[in-house]
Amino acid sequence: MMPARSALLSALAVAWAMSVCLGSASPAEAQKKGGTLTIVRPTDPVSLDPQLETTAPGAWVYFNMLEPLLTMDEKMQIRPALAASYEVLSPTKVRFKLRPNVKFHDGTPLNAAAVKFTFDRALRGTPPARWASLAGSLSGAEVVDDLTVDVMTREPYGPILRTLAMYCTGIVSPTAVQKMGPDFSRAPVGTGPFKFVEWKTNTHVILERNPDYWGDKAPLDRVIFKVVPEEGARMIALQTGDADMVLLPAPAQLAALKRDSKYTVHEVVGGRVVFAGMHAGLAPLDDVRVRTALLHAVDRKAILENILEGSAVPARGVLAPSVFGFKDMQLDKLYPFDRARAKALLAQAGWTPGPDGVLQKGGQKLSLSWLAARGRYPKDGEITEAIQAMFKEVGVEAKVQFLEWATVFTQFRGAQLTHHMFTLGWVTSNADADYSLYALFHSKQVPPTGWNTSRYANPRVDALVEQARRSMNQTEREKLYAEVQDILAKEMVWIPVYNTKEIVVTRAGVKGFTVHPVEYNLWLGKVWLDK
Amino acid sequence: MLTFIARRLLLAIPVLLGVVFVVMLTIELIPGDAVSLMLGEHATPEAVAKLRDYLGLDKPLLVRYVGYVGRVARGDLGRSIQQNRPVVDELADAWPATLELTAAALVIAAAFGIAAGVISAVWPNSAFDALARLGSLFGLSMPVFWTGLVLIVVFALWLPWMPVGGMGSPAHLVLPAVTLALPSLAMVARMTRSSVLDVLREDYVRTARAKGVAERLVVAKHALRNAAIPILTLLGLQAGQLMGGAVLTETVFAWPGLGRLMVKAIFARDYVLLQGAVLIFALAFVVINLAVDLAYGALDPRIARQG
């Protein structure tokens, strides 16, 4: 089974490699070369080295300078990047053939040793890379010959290819790292279509075209990433022409911008699901009837329309549709907004109306404590308040405690959670269901180990996610994850509210840009200016 | 004079030691952990423990305090936890921007505030006075993020004279400096008006007028110089206020100053960077106060003799 499958995989990989080389030569419009693209976004990077930075402000920039072995295209398909082809040798080993004649920006040749160096630095460095925790059981790399490298995992690990296609696994120049030391994080050296020019803290980062790029050379001369923290000021910069591209645009202005031919609004359903989580280990939420009643009590459509104003789509489950293994949980069918049904379910569970309108059972009020931050995810505070009000309509009291994110975060990471409910967002970083279903719903993944903040426990789900993690057969994995999501849909421990949209606004003269479902993958290698 | 300056600077040392201690204690007390925040949602507990050990965060507060003070005494402010970059470099990037913005705002506030105040005092209850008083009320009550955005809309979008934000040419400085200066300008104008009005009622002013000194000289030499002490005190306080209060202005205008750096450090619980930034602020306050005291002496020789 395995050899046949791996042969097929590598054949596919070669086909992809060829289509990448041949297919991109005929753009619809005459592409123009040159010019500077100015991008405004709210925050400065922490660092430009994935070793220290895995969040968007840094990733947006380094994604154009450092390339991983594989990459994920806009359709969420795995494509070769620095690897020309690969072959799954065993459940714990994948062999990569590197592209020949690729050079880092400092002239160092890309070879197997550079790949090994990058992984050693990330996984065995002190401290290890920020992305080491995202990489599951990835354990290292071994040099086979100059252009062949084996990547190993500690145990069979089905998501390995998607892990190696993550934006933050870019291969770095060993010579540059050794020469620059800690300064590497402010001026990284990779193989990408752009190379580093300058970073002025809290002002801008400038990149320029890499004239020796192995693939199609970038049409743009330069890219300037500017910091403009204020949302209003970012939108004005776009209007005055001080900026060509706005990241995190103001949602309220999108409708007007879409009507205006001077601008293009690029949007795609993203990877983050924002939800109201329920603590399934804490009475009365240990009763599935109470949990599902709460789902029926929430009018998600109203929240989407009135609070998010089109900047997000309704969540279709605990995963985003772009994630491998996603299955539509049919939430609107299973749990339509229906107060009568919510009340009936609560009555079934033994809750009767009390004197003040709040339900009660045995003298206890149906009162839920709720932990939330404000401003961590788009409109998180507002949706929390809206759901609180909707709960009240069915006789459930919610006491929300809004705290600053750092404080909320510490409580989430603690071994105990004393709140019934919490507002949280989750992005599946490697776009593989394992990453979420394992860390969020396996009974052993309760914090501080994992992120099972709901304290959900179901032996069948545990067995399924473990089996899916160890399987290298992607069709089988997809089936296993579908079953997990079917079970979760019956036992809901979340009220999934919305799925983020990735939205980027450009001036109409910016061509060749496609917004990616993974917010970090801001690819500028094909962007050109028609000015 | 030199001993006076030297003594004042020596007195700054316990102030700075205290400031560092209070900052470290505050960070210790507020919930939220720098390391787990830094490593993000997906960090394993082992990774968190490893990094905490690496940064020395597992040591008790007092040990860290003594260690920090010792390093600062040798001129080493440490490395930013989040950025892994020398704090000195971070501060060196942000400090000139803050200084430029604060100085420009202070000059605007002083020049226009004193001028408006003096004119109002010389012609009290005139049309100008009424307008200036109304204007200063406006300047005091409008929040800077609102004024800032309105100025951007008017002078960058409708009349494309000024850049939207950022730092670079002198034109970049105009809008943020004016925005930051407005509340201080209003306060200086009101203080100058009342203080000059008081002095203009003094006997020696009547004497000066009686002996035929030109009105312009009466105001400039006799009145303003004697009214200057409270104005100077206010300007000294405002200088500190402007420096620390520039965060919102810096945010609206994308100005890469210390205020934003500090806010970032607080949210990331990057205590090393925060301590460095607070230290710089404290030092700046000491220097400003010293400068104000020296200026008192220059204005009023009686104070200098006591000093």
State the helicity of chain A in percent bands.
25-40%
Using the CA coordinates, give the radius of gyration of chain A. 24 Å
Number-wise, the strands of chain A total 22
- Largest sheet properties of chain A: 11 strands, mixed
The pLDDT mean of chain B sits at: 85
The gyration radius over C-alpha positions of chain B equals 24 Å
Distance between the termini of chain B: 8 Å
Which descriptor suits the 3D outline of chain A?
globular
Coarse structural class of chain B: mainly alpha
Average pLDDT of chain A? 91
Architecture overview:
The complex is a heterodimer of chains A (531) and B (307). Chain A is of the alpha+beta class and 531 residues long. Chain A has helices at 2-23, 56-62, 112-124, 160-164, 174-180, 231-240, 254-259, 288-297, 300-306, 331-334, 339-348, 380-393, 405-413, 433-441, 459-470, 474-491, and strands spanning 36-41, 70-72, 78-80, 83-90, 93-98, 138-145, 148-153, 194-200, 204-209, 222-227, 245-247, 263-278, 312-314, 352-353, 359-361, 364-365, 367-372, 397-402, 421-427, 494-507, 510-511, 528-529. In chain A, the strands form five sheets. In chain A, strands 1, 8, 9, 10, 11, 12, 13, 17, 18, 19 and 20 form an eleven-stranded mixed β-sheet that branches. In chain A, strands 4-5-7-6 form a four-stranded antiparallel β-sheet. In chain A, strand 8 and strand 9 form a beta hairpin. Chain A starts with a helix and ends with a strand. Chain B is an all-alpha fold and 307 residues long. Chain B contains 14 helices and no strands. In chain B, helix 5 crosses helix 8, helix 6 (127-141) packs across helix 8 (170-200) and helix 7 packs across helix 8. The longest helix of chain B is centred in the middle third of the chain and has 36 residues, at 87-122. The radius of gyration of chain B is 24 Å and the shape is globular.
